[in-house]
Design brief:
With 737 residues, this protein is α+β, with helices and mostly antiparallel strands. The chain has four domains: 42-161, Topoisomerase II, domain 5, CATH 3.90.199; 247-326, Gyrase A, domain 2 (2-Layer Sandwich), CATH 3.30.1360; 362-482, Orthogonal Bundle (Topoisomerase, domain 3); 499-729, DNA gyrase/topoisomerase IV, subunit A, C-terminal (Neuraminidase). Helix 3 (67-78) crosses helix 4 (83-94) and helix 14 (405-413) packs across helix 15 (417-424). The longest helix has 41 residues, at 349-389.
Length: 737
């Protein structure tokens, strides 16, 4: 190291150094690990695996070799990473339940759909499949560029020739830095049919492509139940998703009994984990319609589901399972890939197909040019042979007598250096008359091939016609038979199952009890005696809320003093005669937050929420629902303000009472209906704030508290006004508390 560099310190900003290094790491992850190339659909590790196996001559017709040998070659020559990760990539390429068109044929234990791991690589063997052979077709004909490997001792292809639509046929998944890709597998025959349309007419629209390639085709089959418009939007933008459901049938038994048999499960769902999930939900009594589950699978899948009662409709039973288990999953579509320019971007279906076709066009052009060069070289040699065959005696004399026969041959017969070398290297037995005839025959054949190649290289139309024929051949080779037959069925989205039908079977009457200190529990049945309930010492029934009668199928809404609404599932509340459970363990209630209201949340209707600042709003029941533990902010409040009421908006009048004991009655229609916000002013105050709010029907009168006598509208005329007024001093009959 030079003396002027030794000990030199270059001051660098930490943020600049970190950003520079992190960017380099991110680009390395994106380009060399996680995102596939749009042309061959492979990540670098998969491309190196296939190329290394081809170099080992592991063709589909050759014998198998130990996977340890393959992995050793890959990590030693091309991919300097851990052997475990490379072997995992190799195993996945051989798993028929993971890859739609396996690129590797395995021999030995390569795992199972139950989630079992493959055997160690010293026990398993592998070779390439016909699909992988198609991906490599032409790699020795200068079809693609090569680059030096990491140590510079070998070379590896930048991309494979890809005479197979691997990106769409086998899909891809990966997570890079700041971006990810998720592409489901498709049917190769359908992909080739769509590509053929683009070959014939490059501006073919998306609808025409989807007519022959309607959606994914997963290795494990199943039913794709996605709306057609959603599928089209996903393929147009490159982003979307597909709902996959298990395939099932009803199997009749003896004496009117029946059972459900599941024969196909969604893609990437482990069968053993699925069974465990269903069993756990049954133990927690969250699948009340299911009586039992059995795994009768052998090489195929056969899950038997028995209903609790023969009166249950199979569709209703399966709907409950689809909602709660992995018998229904969603596979995302995010076609984020590396383009031919090595730039990552999200592509639509049409752009992906065109990029692959353009690659195939370039491969065809390069292969044709390479073949033409070989033909011209061979023709040059044959021309030399034919020239000397007419003067064999002179050739023999020159070779025997001349000290430098090569220049003499070139001068005598006007030969090129290549022709002269070929003549000198010719074997004696090639001087037969029969051999001359063979040479003339080969010369005529190659001359015809040269004309054909010249025409092909000179006409883009002819090249695209050749690609069209290749696509037809591909479709016939990989689109027919057991491998090519479509496995996933595209079906219309299922009709909505009547929730009431499910609830009628699941519904069990319960009474929800909330204590003063915030403990909640549910007891079976209705019309319980509040006085008979037992609580912890120093605790008691929350009197202002009472006992809430509902069913296990209902949802409860908890409205807190900070303006947030929470949703509780009644069927999941702690049951029994014990103390129950603190409600703060179920929802993230603020430390200073108090429970203002707890009620059964209806499917429709409105509620009026109000704060101590005298502002409020009307809100739809659906906008109060929130399955998150953190709830949903409904009423926006400033520091020091709190919510004071959440009451059903049933009626046509609103009565508000301030802390100053002033009462105001006004039409409900004057209150704005919002999904959330600060609301509008209900009552104006000089000091103090809002104390209570009620909604009532003017024809029925105002009932301020439960059990009290209704007050007719005539008693409220003097307090009636418009929203936002101060109101008048409340009458004596209004409770003081």
């Amino acid at each position: 190291m030079p003396d002027d560099v030794t000990g030199h310190i270059e001051p660098t900003s930490l943020s600049e150094a970190l950003s520079e290094r992190y960017l380099a790491y991110a680009m390395s992850t994106i380009m060399s690990r996680s995102l596939p190339d749009v042309r061959d659909g492979l990540k670098p590790v998969h491309r190196r695996l296939i190329y290394a196996m081809q170099q080992l001559k592991l063709d589909p017709t050759a014998g198998f070799k130990k996977c340890a040998r393959v992995v050793g070659d890959v990590i030693g020559k091309y991919h300097p990473h851990g052997d475990a990760s490379v072997y995992e990539a190799l195993v996945r390429l051989a798993q028929e339940f993971a890859v739609r068109y396996p690129l590797v044929e395995g021999q030995g234990n390569f795992g199972s759909i139950d989630g079992d791991n493959a055997a160690a690589m010293r026990y398993t063997e592998a070779r390439l499949t016909e699909v992988a052979k198609a991906l490599l077709d032409g790699i020795e004909d200068d079809a693609v560029d090569f680059r030096p490997t990491y140590d510079g001792e070998e070379s590896e292809p930048v991309v494979l020739p890809a005479n197979f639509p691997n990106l769409l046929a086998n899909g891809a998944a990966g997570i890079a830095v700041g971006m990810a890709t998720s592409i489901p597998p498709h049917n190769a025959g359908e992909v080739c049919a769509a590509a053929s349309l683009l070959v014939k007419k490059r501006d073919t629209d998306l609808d025409s492509l989807l007519a022959v390639m309607p959606g994914p085709d997963f290795p494990t089959g199943g039913m794709i139940v996605e709306d057609g418009a959603a599928i089209r939007a996903a393929y147009e933008t490159g982003r979307g998703g597909f709902r996959i459901r298990a395939r099932w049938t009803r199997e009749e038994g003896r004496f009117g009994t029946w059972q459900i048999v599941v024969t196909e499960i969604p893609y990437q769902v482990q069968k053993s984990r699925l069974i465990e999930q269903i069993a756990e939900l049954m133990e927690l009594k969250k699948l009340p319609l299911l009586g039992d589950i059995r795994d009768e699978s052998a090489t195929d899948i056969r899950l038997v589901l028995e209903p609790k009662s023969r009166g249950v409709e199979p569709e209703v039973l399966m709907e409950t399972l689809f909602r709660a288990t992995q018998l229904e999953t969603r596979y995302g579509l995010n076609m984020n890939v590396l383009g031919a320019d090595r730039v990552p971007r999200v592509m639509g279906l049409r752009e992906v197909l065109l990029e692959w076709l353009d690659h195939r066009h370039e491969v065809l052009r390069r292969r044709s040019a390479h073949r033409l060069a070989a033909v011209l070289k061979r023709l040059e040699i044959l021309d030399g042979f034919l020239a000397v065959y007419l003067n064999l005696d002179e050739v023999i004399r020159i070779v025997r007598e001349e000290d430098e026969p090569k220049p003499a041959l070139m001068r005598t017969f006007s030969l090129t250096e290549l022709q002269a070398d070929s003549v000198l290297n010719m074997r004696l037995r090639s001087l037969r008359r029969l051999e001359e005839m063979e040479i003339r025959k080969e010369h005529a054949t190659l001359a015809e091939e040269r004309s054909s190649l010249d025409a092909l290289l000179g006409s883009e139309t002819l090249r695209w016609k050749r690609i069209g024929k290749e696509l037809d051949k591909l479709a016939k080779q990989f689109g027919d038979g057991p491998l090519g037959r479509r496995r996933s069925t595209l079906a219309e989205p299922p009709r909505p199952i009547d929730i009431a039908a499910i609830a009628a079977i699941e519904r069990e009457p319960i009474s929800v009890i909330l204590s003063q200190k915030g403990w909640i529990k549910a007891l079976r049945g209705h019309q319980l005696d509040p006085a008979a309930q037992k609580f912890k010492e120093g605790d008691g029934l929350r009197g202002d809320l009472g006992v809430i009668e509902c069913s296990t199928a209902d949802r409860l809404c908890l409205f807190a003093s900070d303006g947030r609404a929470f949703t509780l599932k009644a069927g999941e509340l702690p049951r029994g005669r014990g103390d129950g459970q603190p409600i703060r363990l179920m929802v993230e209630l603020a430390d200073e937050g108090q429970i203002i209201a707890l009620f059964r949340l209806p499917e429709s209707g409105r509620f009026l929420v109000a704060g101590s600042n005298g502002r409020g709003l009307a809100i739809e029941a659906a906008d109060l629902a929130s399955e998150k533990r953190t709830g949903r902010q409904v009423l926006n409040l400033k520091p020091g303000e709190r919510a004071v009421g959440c009451v059903p908006a049933i009626g046509d009048r609103v009565a508000v009472l301030g802390e100053n004991r002033k009462l105001l009655v006004f039409p409900l229609e004057q209150v704005a209906v919002l999904a959330r916000g600060t609301g509008t002013t209900l009552q104006r105050y000089k000091e103090g704030g809002l104390k209570a709010v009620r909604v009532f029907e003017s024809a029925s009168g105002l009932v301020w508290q439960e059990g009290a006598k209704p007050r007719p509208a005539s008693d409220l005329l003097s307090f009636t006004g418009s929203r936002g007024e101060a109101g008048k001093l409340a009458p004596r009959w209004l409770p003081q508390g």
